[in-house]
Design brief:
Blueprint: E1 3-8, E2 13-17, H1 21-25, H2 29-39, E3 45-49, E4 64-69, E5 76-81, H3 85-91, E6 94-100, E7 107-112, E8 115-120, H4 129-140, E9 145-148, H5 151-154, E10 162-164, E11 168-170, H6 175-182, E12 184-190, H7 202-214, H8 220-225, H9 230-236, H10 254-259, E13 262-266, E14 276-281, E15 284-287, H11 291-299, H12 306-319, H13 323-338, H14 351-363, H15 367-371, H16 375-382, H17 403-411, H18 424-429, H19 440-457, H20 461-464, H21 473-484, H22 490-510, H23 523-526, H24 536-550
Helix pairs in contact: 2-19, 2-22, 7-21, 11-12, 11-13, 12-14, 17-19, 19-22, 19-24
């Protein structure tokens, strides 16, 4: 059942093979994706991978990982998407789908169980992601789950994403541009396998499911408000990035304004949390805005109008663009204008200009062509400094008041990232002193190793968040053992997770990573917010400790 499908776009060849023994060690998800990429390192390759738990009827088990070399950073990237796509890929019998090579003409991949076809997509090229999904479902039937790119991916915007279900994304690092360069407009997949029948110890799985589902009340806040409620805490603590990283607080009732737009909630397959919120505004609907989009187009750009932020969210979903990177590059432009570093005049808080720039970026029109390159390349073209790590723009947690996040941004294999370690949680809660370097490195490593494993399965972050997630290390091991029949220990789980992180590191070294790439922008050491600056001595102490504990040179 768990096979690997390989589609060579240059040769228009399709092969299906079994996993090798070396691949089996990495289980699935990002571990399997990293292994495949490491064995065949090339930029015209993307792996969509699921895990042995994917698609089972339990909250948080419907995700899929995309693994590729990022056109934004030049380093290894993985991007995770919820919804229904991952479940359907596994129901079709595949643990991974590998696309490699480049097509001369637009195409889409159609998968239905053992049948895999390369189909003409000239009629879809130029359409946005919503139109593409609707047209494919009309053509193929509504049983298919669709992942597609919009105009941003077609135009090779370096932070273009891959859209699914009109609001779920393989969001960060530019996977949409990878597909765009390969001329792949979409993947449509439909399966029929009974995934519950693959569980080795179903009685134990059912017992664990009942126990785990009973704990979901702890996520009541996420279920009721989604992620935007986080903005109240980050704003209070002065770590909400504002006016392009110049401040840590935003004087606005933006959370209350966004909640007023909520019309209903939406959930991934079999999930009882239902974190997604559908907002209605100006006769339109959008899934979101969630926290990262709210910060990126709200506080970072200085925009106070929730409806403008919702519109920005909708445009990015349709064009297929990562909202974090898009908000960062627009806010950077505002910052450059404010500081007199460019002649053009842009003003923080100008919502209409934000919306106009989103369109220009997606179609690479005028200034949008330069912004589509991302902060790193745009800053270098002007001879100025921009805020990024390894070329990836940061998410909505300011490291000047979160020491663990400062270290996590610096050493993450994909650049400035919060989700590969989630150390922001113990920093924000006070479980780990956010102003001191003590224990940050060892905590970060354990979290990275833990998520290195859970991303092989693949389990939603909300289920495993530090301190508030209902599933802990021993729970994950029990669940994995029940489903697969293995007898893994917590220590064994962390060793596999560590191997996944090491593999990502090895790939990056092959791609040219140097130790100095594991560092923060000078901006964070020089420009103070309400929490001051990142103390360089403390940061370098953490970094040295991290390298020593990892055994890296």
């Amino acid at each position: 059942m768990d096979r690997i499908a390989v589609v060579d776009l240059s040769k228009r060849e399709i092969k299906v093979r079994e996993l090798s023994n070396d691949e089996r060690y990495f289980i699935g998800g990002k571990g399997l994706g990293f292994k495949i990429l490491n064995d065949n390192l090339r930029k015209d390759l993307i792996v969509f991978a699921v895990g042995p738990l994917t698609g089972l009827r339990l909250s948080g088990l419907s995700r899929c990982e995309a693994v590729f070399v990022s056109p934004l950073t030049g380093f290894v990237a993985d991007s995770s998407c919820g919804g229904f796509f991952g479940r359907e890929l596994r129901r079709a019998g595949y643990l991974a789908l590998i696309l490699q090579g480049r097509s001369e003409k637009p195409l889409y991949i159609k998968i239905e169980d053992e049948s895999i076809e390369i189909c003409d997509a000239d009629w879809l090229w130029g359409k946005d992601t919503f139109e593409t999904e609707d047209l494919l479902k009309k053509e193929l039937g509504r049983g298919y789950q669709i992942a597609s790119i919009g105009q941003a991916g077609e135009n090779l915007v370096r932070f273009a994403c891959i859209e699914h279900a009109k609001g779920r994304e393989f969001g960060r690092c530019g996977g949409g541009a990878v597909l765009g360069a390969m001329k792949v407009k979409a993947i449509a997949v439909k399966g029929s396998a009974d995934l519950e029948g693959s569980v080795v110890n179903y009685d134990k799985f059912r017992e664990l499911r009942e126990d785990f589902e009973s704990r979901l009340d702890i996520l009541e806040g996420i279920s009721k408000y989604g992620t935007p409620k986080m903005i109240l805490l980050t704003n209070e603590l002065g770590v909400l990035p504002t006016r392009y990283w110049q401040k840590g607080r935003f004087d606005s009732d933006i959370f209350d304004d966004v909640v007023r737009l909520y019309a209903k909630k939406k959930a991934c397959f079999a999930c009882k949390v239902g974190c997604a919120k559908i907002s209605k505004f100006n006769g339109k609907e959008v899934e979101g805005p969630e926290y990262e989009t709210l910060f990126a187009f709200g506080s970072l750009c200085g925009v106070r109008d929730a409806k403008v932020i919702a519109e920005a969210n909708l445009l990015c979903d349709k064009f297929g663009m990562d909202t974090i990177s898009t908000g960062n590059i627009i806010a950077f432009l505002f910052y450059l204008s404010e500081k007199g570093l460019i002649d053009e005049k842009y003003v923080f808080g100008d919502g209409n200009t934000v919306l106009d720039l989103i369109r220009k970026i997606a179609f690479r029109c005028g200034i949008g062509d330069k912004l589509a390159e991302g902060v790193k390349r745009f800053a270098e073209s002007l001879g100025v400094e921009g805020v990024h790590v390894k070329g990836l723009e940061p998410p909505g947690y300011d490291p000047r008041g979160l020491m663990g996040v400062a270290l996590g941004y610096a050493v993450s294999y994909r650049g400035a990232c919060h989700i590969k370690h989630c150390i922001y949680r113990p920093n924000l809660s006070g479980g780990l002193d956010r102003f001191k370097s003590d224990k940050q490195a060892e905590t970060l490593i354990r979290l990275e190793n833990f998520y290195g494993f859970t991303d092989c399965l693949i389990i939603c972050r909300f289920l495993t968040l530090p301190e508030i997630g209902p599933l802990h290390e021993n729970d994950v091991v029990e669940l994995y053992n029940a489903v697969t029949g293995q007898n893994l220990s917590v220590e064994g789980m962390l060793r596999i997770g560590e191997s996944v992180i090491k593999l990502a590191r090895d790939i990056n070294v092959r791609l040219g990573l140097k130790r100095e790439d594991d560092y923060l922008p000078e901006f964070f050491f020089k420009v103070p917010t309400e929490n001051g600056v990142v103390d360089r001595k403390s940061f370098e102490k953490m970094l040295e400790e991290y390298y020593k504990l990892r055994g890296w040179k």
